[in-house]
Amino acid sequence: MVMLLFLALVGDAACLRLGPAPSMLANGRMTKKPPAKLGGRGFGAAPPTSGKLLDEPRYTALYEWLRSSPLTNLKKVGIAEFEGGLRGVMALQDIMAGEEIVAIPATLAIDLGADGVDPLPAARRFLGEMHGDTDGEYAAYWAVLPPPDAADLCTPDFFSEKELQMLQWPPLVVETRKRSAQLRKALGERAPNSGTPNDVMAVAGGNMRELRWAVWTILSRVLTVADPTDLGGHKLLIPLIDMFNHRGGSKHYLTGRTDGMLRVVAGATVKAGEQIFIKYGTDQTSNVEFVAHYGFVDPKAETADRTLLRMQPAMVPALKHSTLAQDEAELDALKAADGPYQEQLALGLRMALKRAALKEGLLEA
What is the rounded average pLDDT for all residues in the chain? Predict the structure, then answer.
């Protein structure tokens, strides 16, 4: 009997070269809502080539800590670096369909409460847990999280005003600005502003940076898990499970059962050396959400993008500030010059939306 239902998902948002909480399904499986790079989990569509197993001390410490429970199952997987510098989970042995890929005891997860869609309360609780971990119980886990100044933090929350305008999607710009205002309100006098004295500006800026990072951590990594008596769910950070990258067609799934274990189960055969992917979100998760929470564009989200455009046709004129051909040329130039990833990501999103709009007949070629 399935006891734990995954409602929303993790993400280890690492800036990926253009590649949310899962929703509850009747069978108790979870879909994701939403690298060796400095950062966190792997996102996006990395090539399925063999990876290089990462043997840094922080990963060894993570394995040892997780295996402190005899219930943990990491026998056939390891954290590896894949093409493009993306960190993810690799199969060390062949894994058959229906086989358990990973199992983590729920006692090793970090429970951030049962709050709703607003990530701020869970973010503040997360910071409290981390700073209050005086005995270092979760030290091995904190060590593999991307730090607040990581280059991998590339979602719109970390965009400049120029980069926000490049998105050409007003709802995402509004959402980002609103979240920034909420963070400033939450920090109150500890937030930086035009009147902050120079001698305390560094501290005020650090407060803002840390809280923004904590919110990003919640949006990109947290799984919401519910049982029949609490369908609102609790937000959990689940070590190692939050390192699986996204692939739209993945058949692997996450599940929880009455024994208090949190698992990834193989929906298809995986060969040794291959990266193991799970699916973030549902078939209706659009690229706007992928960009907002994880910092990548998924070409397989076109159907969801078309649905979004049908629901918000008033936003389509914002996409007319440039043509698809102009965007493609600009992106090619940015890549050739190794330009800022944030700008590449903004171009990738508006190109994906324009392709969907063309299919819907909402834009002219």
Answer: 84
Query: What is the tens place of the pLDDT at every residue in 269-284?
Result: 999 999 999 998 888 9
Clarify whether residues 236 and 318 are in a common domain. no
CA pair distance 6, 22, nearest whole angstrom = 7
What residue numbers bound the domain in which 10 lies?
2-112+221-278
Q: How far is CA 205 from the centre of its chain?
A: 24
Task: Give the CATH number of the domain where residue 48 resides.
Answer: 2.170.270.10
Beta bridge partners of 261: 105
pLDDT digits (tens, 9 = 90+) for 311-326: 999 999 999 999 999 9
> Which residues contact residue 280 at a Cβ distance below 8 angstroms, ignoring those fewer than 6 apart?
9, 11, 20, 22, 31, 32, 33, 34, 43, 246, 290, 294
What 3-state class would DSSP assign to 216?
A: helix
**Using one digit for the tens of pLDDT, what is the confidence trace for 95-119?**
999 999 999 999 999 999 886 788 9
Looking at the domain assignment, is residue 213 inside a domain? no
Q: What pTM does this model have?
A: 0.84
Residues 272 and 312 in one domain: no
> What is the number of structural domains in the chain?
2
C-alpha pair distances (Å), 39 with each of 85, 143, 153, 201, 267 = 10, 11, 7, 26, 27
